[in-house]
Amino acid sequence: MNASNDQPLWRWAELCQALGLPEVPGPDVAGICIDSRQARPGDLFVALTGDPGPRFNPSRRSDRDGHAFIDAALAAGAVGVMAHDRMARTVPQLQVADTLDGLWALGRAARARLHGPVIAVTGSSGKTTAKTFLAAALGAFATEGSLNNHLGVPLSLARTPRDARATVCEIGTNHPGEIGPLAELARPDVAVVLNVHPAHREHFRDLDAIRVEKLSIQNGLGETGQLVLEESLDAAGLPETRSISRFGRGPGARVQLLTLNDGRASYRVGARVLEAHVPGGGEHRALTLAAVLCVLDVLGADPAAGTALADTLVPAGRGRHRSAGGVDVIDDSYNANPESMAAALRGLGQTGHGRRFALLGEMLELGDEGADYHRALAPLCTGLDGVFCVGAGMLALRDALATRADAPPARWFPEADDSLLTALEALLAPGDSLLVKGSNRVFWTRSFVTRLLERLDRLERTGKKKPGL
Q1: Which residues does 381 contact at the CB level (< 8 Å), separation at least 6?
Q2: DSSP for 228-294?
């Protein structure tokens, strides 16, 4: 995904030009870094504050200041610094009034020098997976991880090699009014809206407000830019002149998912029918792959380039299967909303031949309807061998399961702690499957799956008694 380049990522004079500073001698820069812990030799370190002010709405605000970590970045090999405080250091410096504005300026300048197509992806779920699939199918540049907010989008652009044959970025939101400005910064040639679900519901008036926010990705498209939408998504409010292509299951879609069976799918693309491997399996990924094939077709590339993508492309924490102690752990711990949780549970119901368990963390930022969304998962848990519920929001699911005669046994834990690990270690045995899914702060930020795998690696490989939940 990180394209090789014989030229430096940035010459110092180019950085000065992008920031409107007088050109002075300085080193070539190999990378852009905003976290001193991730600094590498040759990087430019951008010293950001932990609170971007009223312009943006990060999930967390902090009083930490990147200027306090300049020495750590330099010790790791950074060759220059962008800062808004004058430094008594001899290191090459780019002095700006506001480093966040400076990062956006670098992103804007980086976009201006790109000649290959730029694709931007948004949606309530599946953004990183779609970005990864697209980058592989197109041989495009894309940054690792989910760099999709007010920091991630300009950083992704600033890291893009000048000779990238194509570029894929993702754009996210958790408050109204965020996607439009990011799309205008990225200026995509093709913009994709994968889906609209009640993610971050508490910050939006209703589901239609989320739809309007997602569709604002078209704000960055020029007159010839093309929009790729899931077939059921209402396009009301878009300019009548906007070129729109659809993907989905319906016969009117430009790319139509025809069949899906055991990780293999068939698609109609124009007059062609293509057979494809769906990395990671599942209908939700089959539809993500349909979006990828649609983008390829829109760009005039051969959609067949997306039909043999490897399972290893499924990003960490987005449904990747990992094995330890003979247990198949489906790591979908990066995030969750009601639709993606339902899709994961349906996939678990079709997994393997052994016992199947679900470890479900609460879904955050759903507002007043949160309890209803959690209770609605109960029918999807029937047929499983047990459910572990984690977090206050998941009390609603545990209580709903307790009222159903067809429900599996369920246990509730207030948080993903050592007591939960101990309970899982005592229960799981070779041949079992375990789905781990929840909002980012429940499992992912705690590295819970990694800790669980370490525990399972110590299990006896054979002869373990299978106790009840």
Answers
A1: 345, 358, 387, 397, 401, 407, 408, 410
A2: EEETT---TTS-TT-EEEEEESSTTSSEEEEEEETTEEEEEETTEEEEEE-TT-SHHHHHHHHHHHH
Task: Inform me whether the pLDDT recorded for 462 exceeds 50.
Answer: no
**Domain 320-456 is classified in which CATH homologous superfamily?**
Mur ligase, C-terminal domain (3.90.190.20)
Query: 436 and 359 in contact (C-beta within 8 Å)?
Result: yes
What confidence tens digit (pLDDT) does each residue in 438-451 have? 999 999 999 999 99
CATH code for the part of the protein at 12-97: 3.40.1390.10
Q: Are 12 and 24 in contact (CB under 8 A)?
A: yes
How many residues does this entry show for the chain? 469
> In b/e form, how buried is each residue of 440-457, taking b as 16+ CB within 10 angstroms?
bbbbbebebbeebbebbe
Contacts of 53 by beta carbon, 8 Å cutoff, 6+ apart: none
- Listed by start position, the domains of the chain span 12-97, 114-311, 320-456
Task: State which fold the 114-311 domain adopts.
Answer: UDP-N-acetylmuramoyl-L-alanine:D-glutamate ligase (3.40.1190)
Phi and psi angles of residue 415, each rounded to the nearest 5 degrees, phi first? -155, 165
Q: Which two tokens stand for residue 352?
A: 């393997």
